Amino acid sequence: MLNRWLAVIATLFGRNWITLFGSALTTASAICIIGFLLLGFTDTEVSPYLDIMALLILPAVFVAGLLVIPVGAWWDRRRRRCEGETQPAAAAQFPVIDLNNPSTRRAAFLVTVLTAVNLLIISTVTYHGVHFMDSVMFCGTVCHTVMEPEHTAYLGSPHSRVKCVECHIGPGAPWFVRSKLSGLGQVIAVTLGTYHRPIPTPVENLRPSQDTCEQCHWPEKFTGDRVRVITKFLEDEENTPIKTVLLMHIGGGASERHGIHSWHIDPDIRTNYIPTDDSRQEIAYVRVEKGDGTVQEFKARDAEIPTGKERVMDCIDCHNRPTHIFQMPDEAVDEALAKRRIDRSIPYIKKVGTEALVEARGDAGDLKHIVERVQLYYRENHPDFYAANKGQVDKATDELVRIYKRNVFPDMKVTWGTYPNNIGHLHWPGCTRCHNDNLVTETGETISGDCSICHTVLAWDETEPKILEDLQIQ
Ligand code: HEC
Ligand code: HEC
Ligand code: HEC
Ligand code: HEC
Ligand code: HEC
Fold this sequence. Notes:
- There is one protein chain.
- By secondary structure, the protein is α+β, with helices and mostly antiparallel strands.
- The chain contains 18 helices and eight strands.
- The chain has four domains: 132 residues; 63 residues, no CATH class; 148 residues, no CATH class; 84 residues, no CATH class.
- It has a five-stranded antiparallel β-sheet with strand order 6-3-4-5-7, with no helix packed on it. It has a three-stranded antiparallel β-sheet with strand order 1-2-8.
- The mean pLDDT is 90.
- Bound molecules: heme C (5 copies).
């Protein structure tokens, strides 16, 4: 009995070496894939490279093997026919399948079962493979160096539980296919090392934000003002904390009042603009189209308007760093002092720490420089304090090193300020790219730069703002 089955297997797969090779490939990869899928039932942590092997490379080998099997059979038939080995079946155009013949029956049964098993393996692997390619692990760590800046910044952001693909691809089949095609180009660029360093921003052809951000956020529906307290530290001996309190007029589409979102997200208003540079930091032309048909054009007094780069403004023109948030040295040190990760009682630490970071711009030896720069300063200028508080100073330098590692990535040529942030107007032009005196209509109107359209400044760099006391904000 067993012999008969083995004979059928031998005729199906062992007739010629091509088919035999194909079956061996398929069987071996199938066993590995099944082994890997079974790992899923245990708690084993696997590296992304094993995932790539099991979910992308082995399935390719598996399918290649399956394709080779019929090629071998076809080649074998041709060869036999040429050698004049004409059996009744081989002479016909197509093989005659006679289910009355027990060995044909066995072969048909075997082929059916194997096809079912193959389909099961292919569909399981496709399902897991697609999930895997959508995972943060795949996007963020597989090409480790390339994605390290964005992945690192992402991990500490408000969106660290939102998957990369939810902002970068969004739902639906067409964008899925587009992303997989452009992903192929990226894999080639990474393999050949031809990718840009740093990865350029903005992302060309990013999907419109209605389909990504607005799957979760719906600013048309939320409205109102929000108090923002910004804490900074002076560069004096005491690292004196100062506070700015802004009442942000965020607004919302449904609100009658003016406000940032009320105007910019209003479905009745479309803002188009043309930048003069690839990073969209200088804007030469703005056109506002309203639902009632009115159109208003603002043109730069001092710049030529380039053609072919017009863009419709959406969430990302302001919120371009919702998750890849890189800090400037002073901002990062302020945050560390505010969260007491750096001890405020270390004299001049705001100044010294910021200076040490500013000097470390992505060269070899930066980390050593940061540590030695700070230690040297305290040894020379505050020897008594240093002798008594070396532990505190060491903790501070550790934090400075962490700040550096979150923001400077020499392998990708990313350093302080590589990626602009378009919210606000402190380190980058941001809102003032348009809200300035340079863009004018034919009749001389400009886009308002009045401080109070965006926020009310309730306190500005004050040590003890009365408003915080009144509002009982700590
Ligand atoms: C909350 C939404 C969001 C998530 C989640 C997200 N990104 Fe981004 N990403 C953006 C936006 C917005 C930009 C800037 C787009 C622009 O300015 O055109 C961007 C830009 C980038 C860039 C271009 C370089 C740059 O910094 O501008 C890379 C690379 C990138 N993201 C990778 C990733 C990776 C990897 C992940 C997952 C670890 C991820 N992103 C998760 C929204 C997101
Ligand atoms: C999958 C859902 C999801 C998507 C997609 C998403 N967000 Fe968010 N976003 C969130 C959640 C959840 C929070 C709140 C996080 C918290 O409060 O800890 C948040 C917070 C924010 C905040 C407030 C951050 C802060 O500092 O308080 C902004 C601004 C924001 N998102 C903008 C965006 C933009 C712009 C996009 C598109 C590029 C986007 N989000 C895409 C879920 C999402
Ligand atoms: C004209 C620029 C601009 C546009 C366009 C814009 N926003 Fe905002 N958004 C802001 C500013 C400014 C804030 C306030 C930031 C702050 O307080 O630090 C804000 C705040 C937010 C917040 C936090 C709200 C809160 O109550 O804390 C979310 C979420 C958000 N925006 C989502 C979006 C989404 C989604 C879109 C697109 C539909 C969008 N924004 C379009 C400028 C903009
Ligand atoms: C691409 C150009 C552009 C950018 C960038 C831009 N705006 Fe605007 N914004 C406009 C235009 C145009 C108007 C309409 C001005 C007018 O009609 O006087 C406007 C109007 C507004 C208004 C309503 C003004 C009013 O009269 O009530 C607010 C608030 C506002 N913007 C906030 C912001 C904030 C905050 C940012 C930065 C995060 C920003 N804008 C960035 C083009 C821009
Ligand atoms: C078009 C909108 C807009 C206009 C006009 C505007 N601001 Fe702002 N401003 C912002 C936004 C947005 C932020 C960022 C809030 C944040 O950090 O999230 C900001 C931040 C600030 C900050 C805090 C910066 C920091 O981090 O220390 C100050 C101070 C400030 N603005 C003052 C002003 C003054 C003064 C004017 C008038 C000359 C003005 N702004 C005009 C939108 C605007």
